[in-house]
Amino acid sequence: MGRTATSPVAFACQFPMNSITGLFKSSLGKKYLMAATGVLLLGFVIGHLIGNLQVFGPPELINHYAHFLKSKPLLLWGVRLSLLVIVGLHIATALHLTVANKEARPVEYASPPTYGSTWQSRYMLVSGLVIVAFVLYHLAHFTVLLPGINGFGDFRRLEAILPGGDKGQDVYAMMVLGFQVWWVTIFYLVAQGLLFAHLGHGLASMFQSLGFRNHVWWPRINCLAKVVSTAIFIGYAVIPIAIYLRLVGADYARQKIAELQRPALVQTAGASGKEAAK
Questions:
Q1: DSSP code for 18
Q2: CB of 248 within 8 A of CB of 54?
């Protein structure tokens, strides 16, 4: 007879005194932890997408949204630190499960088994690590604002008028300038494609870990996973594509390019004047 999946409640009851230790000692517990952290990360991905889609509105919309987040440092850093912990747990658990699977089968198959598996499932760890590398680049691009990786210049000099007349970062300009660079757009699209594959398999696997893999639920879960991952991919991919094709923010970008170049021209002229005076 086939082995039935243990429910999360029944599993938790096996470790009433030390659930955390029990969780990490059991492969089933690690799968539950993977599912839980995956759900939290999916929620962040959806929320981040909703925020980014504001780029299709007027510049003030996303700039005011970014200003609101930065005006709440406790909330912002709380979310950032929580995400760091969640991502760390998700990666560590994935590595533990991968090592455990290899140790359980010390002798490799003569040919890789493909029955019942997809390329997404076979490369989940690889796609996950590439996504992490992309997130680091994304943070350096739009959060840390490293000048050498955006293809245009120093985004820290881009400013916008905020509510109350104060000046703040022009997030809209950073996006419309950043995605006008072809290699940046391609990198983002590749990363979104890997995210699509990772989510498609991960979402279905989450329900499987919770015991929903049967002839009734599994086709529906697979369909749901494909719909959700496809919608997220389209939502994220349409942003760089629309900007690169100059369908969004083209005039605004030209104005901001002129602003970025103007100080450089003034500085060059000043340097030339000093050389002439010598």
A1: -
A2: no
By CB atoms closer than 10 A (0-12, 13-18, 19+), residue 129 is middle
Residues 6+ away with beta carbon under 8 Å from 33: 23, 24, 89, 93
pLDDT band of residue 23 (cuts 50, 70, 90) is low
Please compute the mean of the pLDDT values over residues 92-102 and round it to a whole number: 80
Rounded to 10°, the helix 250-277/171-178 angle is 90
Residue 71, SS3 per DSSP: coil
Q: For residue range 125-180, what is the model confidence (pLDDT) as tens digits?
A: 777 788 888 888 888 888 888 887 877 778 888 888 887 777 888 999 999 999 99
Instruction: State residue 35's pLDDT score.
Output: 85
57: three-class secondary structure by DSSP: coil
Q: Over the stretch 101-121, which tens digit does the pLDDT of each residue have? A: 777 665 554 445 544 556 566
- Measured between alpha carbons, how far is 65 from 52 in angstroms, rounded to an integer? 10
* The CATH number of the domain covering residues in 8-104+122-270: 1.20.1300
> For residue 271, what pLDDT is reported?
43
Which class for 105: exposed (0-12), middle (13-18), buried (19 or more C-beta within 10 A)?
A: exposed
Residue with tokens 């994304």: 138
Q: Residue 206 — left, alpha, or beta (φ > 0 → left; ψ -120 to 50 → alpha)? A: alpha
Q: Where are the beta strands (DSSP E) in the chain?
A: 159-161, 167-169
CB 199 within 8 A of CB 38: no
